[in-house]
Fold this sequence. Notes:
Elements: E1 3-8, H1 10-13, E2 22-25, H2 29-37, E3 43-48, H3 50-56, H4 58-61, E4 69-72
Parallel strand pairs: 1-2, 1-3, 3-4
Helix pairs in contact: 2-3
Amino acid sequence: MGTVTAIGARTSVCGLALAGVDVLVAEDPDAVRRAWRALPGTAGLVILTAEAAEALGAETTAPDPSRPLTVVMP
């Protein structure tokens, strides 16, 4: 089973670490893209803040068997 990772601003994602989520803090669009590229191969689910999803664009976050499942926080 894969791991769960969250990408986004510190204030939005740090609390998820209490539930065992791997947190990648990314405060700006460039940091979001770097965090996405640095995802471990074990990532099975990626939780993105709305801002992080916008920085990555729909093409990157669209369902694809070669990428982890991606969800966007409301």
